[in-house]
Amino acid sequence: MSNEMVLTQSTGGIAVKIAALLGWFALALQLYLILASRWQGDKSLLGGVDIFFSYFTVLTNILVAVVLTCAATSGDSAVRRFFLKPTVQGGVAAAIVLVGLAYNLLLRNTWNPQGLQWVADELLHDVMPVLFVIYWWFCVPKGTLQWRDLWPWLLYPLAYFIYALVRGYFVGSYPYPFIEVDKLGYPQVFINALMVLVAFVVISLVLIAVDRWRGQH
Fold first, then answer.
1. What global pTM score does this model have?
2. What beta strand segments (E) does the chain contain?
3. How far apart are CA 91 and CA 184, in angstroms?
4. pLDDT value at position 215?
């Protein structure tokens, strides 16, 4: 193995470690901001944890951070093998791309975060999606994905949608404006969810097509 190749692999490994740390930092910052806001408002901190885990953005960024951590570390475990499967990493890539696109196209203009909240927002919705796509492009083996991989990937956003509706029914609060049943009603919410799901399908098919193309070159 040439010195240049060793240097390239070493640099790549450092970059993945930095990306993993950045992912966990963004999540920790967002959790801190939610809990600090709850504390200042004399509200339940446990409720703040519930709010934190109610966001598709947060759950998906956790998956991203876990995958990057597995890639940045060594050792052999069932969990690490699972998250480093190209099919699993492809599904996570599709989900985090959806996070970035949905936020920038649908949600960015609905509020104006400042200070540390702006930092957390940019990291979770812009920086981490870009970093993970770069990681997926350069570090994940290509040519193994099949068109049928789309179906298990769909389970994640579907499960989240069901969870968000059930949680919202009991607590009276929804994490995103386009699924606010109390304001929009179930028919419109289902239409909105279907549109987001279609976007996820398109993103997934593009990723699979790119994977298959790169696997042939």
1. 0.93
2. none
3. 30
4. 83
